[in-house]
Amino acid sequence: MHLGPQDVTALWITFKLALISTSILLVLCTPLAWWLANTRWRGRTVVEAMVSLPLVLPPTVLGFYLLLLLGPRGVVGGFFERIGVGHLAFSFPGLVIGSMVYSLPFVVQPVQNAFAATSTRVLEAAATLRATPLDRFLTVSLPLARRGFLTAAVLSFAHTLGEFGVIIMVGGNIPGRTQVASIAIFNHVEALDFASAHALALILVVLAFSLLLTVYAINRRFKVVGVGS
Amino acid sequence: MSIVARFRLDRGDFVLDVDLDLPSHGVIALFGRSGSGKTTVLRCVAGLEHAPGGYLSVDGEVWQDGDRFLPVHKRPIGYVFQEGNLFPHLNAAANMRYGLDRTPPAERRVGWDEVVELFGIGHLLDRHPDQLSGGERQRVALARALLSSPRLLLMDEPLSALDHARKQEILPYLERLHDELDIPVLYVSHAPGEVARLADHVVLLEEGKAVACGTLRDTLSRLDLPTALAEDAGVVIEATVGAHDERYHLTRLDFPGGSVYVARRPEAVGSRLRFRVHARDVSLAFCRIEGTSITNLLPAVVTEVADADTPAHVLVRLEADGTPLIARITRRALDQLQIEPGLRMWAQIKTVALLA
């Protein structure tokens, strides 16, 4: 088992990527999930289907479209190019955007389900106790949905750890900048350096397993004690 | 001072159409079967339901009129739900503080200690809702509603989710609320017993319409009112403890029109009590009968005769010096005695049910 400096960097980039994209997703998806849980608009199903697309599409398809979008001639990449920031393909911000699209359903669905499970009666009670709509959201809806948020955060983080296809399409394989752990493993195997591949792979397995263990343990504890403690 | 409410809602299979002018003091019961629209009226008053084109004013302050619709959180109400509806993520104290914290200090009229004492919940404050019994949850919910210092308290069958024992546990608290705090209450119920015990004023709803509206005494003693009351017909009489008979362990209750004896009561002479006389416990005679074990006899005048819940029976309404009574007798007895309005008779009361 051997972990070279490049592997450590790749792990660090993976961790940073998962943390940043999960954080931004949680913020952006909260209003979307709230809206999906409460709207009676018929077009809702179309939006829901779109949110779930990354679950079934091959990551290379997602990555391909994102590359076109974020590259120098894409709508988004071109805009950033013109304002002097540079296009987003093969950059870390490009990876973050790619990961966010890839993990979108893993954040929206648990949060949406948690919001939908909150009884409207409890929110009505808050309204009769003089709480404004925003106040009700912050003091009743959010705390009651915290299990959903926790599940969303852990799933999105773990899912991003294992991302491969989108990243190789959008970010390429630039060591120290866009090379993440899963791609580093691929490189090691290509080079027949199985010892290094083993080391990285084992770290990812242990990490992913402990994260999922946390989610299930938390869900279990909540079930026994109720949402109160 | 009054509550004026006009709501019309058309939901296809259910149409609500009420026009109410209610006193804004005491306990006003919205009474009727399930599906009669009583909860919908309450939700419209709270602003949880919007009946377009409706009108609502409370003590002259308009809450709904035309385009004006005061949102729920701006209405100075307290709402007690059937199931309590406590916030599951907060303990009892935090639940109670929720409304209190959002009430401007200048508007706070109900004190923390007062409410904790009134509902006997001092030992429950740090418990979470899932660690409370149904009755305890409902007491905390009542305290929570009161601590937001409402000018109008709305209660939606607060006892219906509780078993008999729990109901008996809560009822005294509701009575204390009535006696100690001067907040008008709109009380939704389908239980005649609760209404008789708590209400001062009754609105009887049937299929979305208010079919009767008046004081408890007048409404319960009307014979033309439909089914909701008929099977359990009777009157409620408000009386004063007149005297105690220590030898026979009896208490005399006085009211306009007469008095009755009941088993010895703990209340002091002069206390006010409510009791209920079921129509099935009243029989009628032409003269004061001697040699009967029934000791409660009242002279009364027949005012009305109406059909009862079965073809074999009729309901006879009488007045004893302003106090109404209803007797449920057989149609054969009615014909044999030739009972008709204006006749002076003696009402024999077999038993009375004390309500407090």
Automatic annotation (TrEMBL), chain A:
Part of the binding-protein-dependent transport system for molybdenum; probably responsible for the translocation of the substrate across the membrane. InterPro entries: MetI-like, MetI-like_sf, ModB_ABC. Its main location: membrane. It is a multi-pass membrane protein. The keyword NAD does not apply. It comes from Pseudothauera rhizosphaerae. This is Molybdenum transport system permease. Belongs to the binding-protein-dependent transport system permease family. CysTW subfamily. It is found in: Cell inner membrane; Cell membrane. GO terms for cellular component: plasma membrane.
